[in-house]
Amino acid sequence: MAGKLSFSLVSPEREVFSGLVDQVDAPGVEGDFGVLANHAPFMTALREGVVTVIDGSARRRFDVHGGFADVTPAGLTILAEHATEVATA
């Protein structure tokens, strides 16, 4: 197994989420993408949409409005212009 991905979601106001997770799906300007642990490094701009954080059977969703995603050997950091967690029903 690939292990856990270190993920941080940051908005100008605060750190919205930080932790070790299995996968993150995000809305890139060139299309949606998913990141697992040990992903190849890349950087992309984000469009408005939903970031989904998957850890085991748990899923958390965050609305994001613009920003950037940066995948490095250390993990994934999303710097969003605006980010809020979506309430689950």
Describe, in plain words, how this protein is organized in 3D.
It is a single chain. This protein is mostly beta strands. Helix content is 0%, strand content 64%. The chain contains no helices and 10 strands. It has strands spanning 5-10, 15-21, 23-28, 31-35, 42-45, 49-55, 58-64, 67-72, 75-80, 83-85. Strands 2-1-9-8-5 form a 5-stranded mixed beta sheet, with no helix packed on it. The protein has a 5-stranded antiparallel beta sheet with strand order 4-3-6-7-10, with no helix packed on it.
- What is the C-alpha radius of gyration, as a whole number of Å? 12 Å
Overall geometric form: globular
Percent range of helical residues = under 10%
Distance between the termini: 31 Å
Strand share of the residues?
over 45%
Strand order of the largest sheet: 2-1-9-8-5
Average per-residue pLDDT, rounded, comes to 94
The total strand number stands at 10
Class from secondary-structure proportions: mainly beta
Total number of helical segments?
Answer: 0
Poorly predicted tracts of residues: none
Main β-sheet: number of strands, strand sense, barrel status?
Answer: 5 strands, mixed
- Please write the string of helix (H) and strand (E) elements: EEEEEEEEEE
